[in-house]
Amino acid sequence: MVLLFWGYFETRIERLHRTAMRKLPQRILHDQLKRHSGIGPRLYELYKIFFGVDYFDDLRANGFSSVADLLNDVHRRRNEFSHGRPQAINDAIVTRLVENLRDEHEAWIALYNSRANSLP
Q1: Mean model confidence pLDDT for the chain
Q2: In whole angstroms, what is the distance from residue 59 CA to residue 82 CA?
Q3: What's the confidence (pLDDT) of residue 23?
Q4: Cα torsion for 22, 45, 55, 113, to the nearest 10°?
Q5: Angstrom distance (rounded) from CA 50 to CA 29
Q6: Disulfide: which of 46, 82, 87, 119 matches 36 by Cβ 3.0-4.6 Å?
Q7: Long-range own/partner contacts, residues 78-85 (CB < 8 A, 24 or more apart)
Q8: Is residue 69 a contact partner of residue 39, using CB atoms and an 8 Å limit?
Q9: Are 16 and 116 in contact (CB under 8 A)?
Q10: Handedness of CA 43, 49, 113, 111 (dihedral sign)
């Protein structure tokens, strides 16, 4: 469940970046997505280039601190899992994620709409 969610989350972040760069030449868009190919750089560096703040601080600034904390935890655990520590994803994080999916989705919609509508 955690890995499935995270894959879906990564596609949404890419969609937001593609929206942010839609007016740029395709070559620049592809270069930036390639340069910031990992989810970490896309959440922290590329997001900050377009919006002046990283994704997690943007969540917090918009009243979604608990979602930011959850996503940070899921990201950290997913990385640990991927680097040979399978016990990083346990029943507790699965339960926490499932219980907060609605809040996370509402936070995503709010940020996406505010950011997509603020772009020229």
Answers
A1: 93
A2: 25
A3: 85
A4: -10
A5: 12
A6: 46
A7: 78/2, 78/3, 78/6, 81/2, 81/3
A8: no
A9: yes
A10: positive
73: number of Cβ within 10 Å? 13
Give pairs for 14-21: CB < 8 Å, separation 24+. 14/42, 15/112, 16/111, 16/112, 16/115, 16/116, 17/42, 17/46, 17/47, 17/50, 19/112, 19/115, 19/116, 19/119, 20/50, 20/51, 20/115, 20/116, 20/119, 21/50
What's the sign of the alpha-carbon dihedral 57, 15, 38, 81? positive
Token duo for residue 59:
């969540």
Amino acid at 38: G
Q: What is the pTM of this model?
A: 0.89
Residues 6+ apart with CB under 8 A from 55: 13, 43, 44, 47, 71, 111
Q: Is the pLDDT of residue 119 over 80?
A: no
**29 C-beta neighbours (distance < 10 Å), count:** 16
Matching residue, tokens 């890995």: 3
